[in-house]
Amino acid sequence: MTRARILLADDHKEMRDRVEELLAPEFDVVGVVGGGRELLTAESEIQPDVCVVDISMPIICGIEAANKLKVGGSKAKIIFMTVHEDPDFLQAALDTGALGYVVKSRLATDLCKAIRGALVGQLFVSASRRLGTDSEHS
Question: Tens of pLDDT along 17-50?
């Protein structure tokens, strides 16, 4: 079985390094970018299976970038990773067609689960009382 190809977008190098390390045992990280504009370019060149995207990035935020990918006909599944535990951010993320919303404080336990779920069309949302999800949705 081939490993899923992941494109990662986050504006903090330390976070990109951490996420790459988390994903490496199970997935192929085929691209790493620092912003939404770079995500759009890299996605069209690489055509990954999944884009793991930070919401809060300068110039083009993750939600705007995901919307542009959707309008552009991207086949990549979108997983958001974020510090935002606000239902409005969750709703905006889901409105893009994203299949995952992972709170950064739960990356180690939730990110790979979210990617595995997205690959088979299942929604995953990190458990969070502030998001109104006492247990993860999958």
Answer: 999 999 999 999 999 999 999 999 999 999 999 9
- Pick from 88, 89, 124, 86: which is nearest to 107 by CA? 124
> Hey, where are the domains in the chain?
5-125
Does domain 5-125 bear CATH number 3.40.50.2300? yes
**Each residue's pLDDT tens digit, 50-78:** 999 999 998 999 999 999 999 999 999 99
pTM of structure: 0.92
Distance CA 107, CA 105 (A): 6
Burial class (CB in 10 A: 0-12, 13-18, 19+), 29: buried
Mean pLDDT across the chain, nearest whole number? Answer: 92
Measured CA distances, 13 to 33, 43, 49, 74, 97 (Å): 9, 19, 22, 25, 26
Q: State which H helix or E strand residue 66 sits in.
A: helix 62-71
Residue 104 and residue 49: Cα distance in Å, rounded?
Answer: 21
Helix (H, G, I), strand (E, B) or coil at 77: strand
- CA pair distance 22, 25, nearest whole angstrom: 7
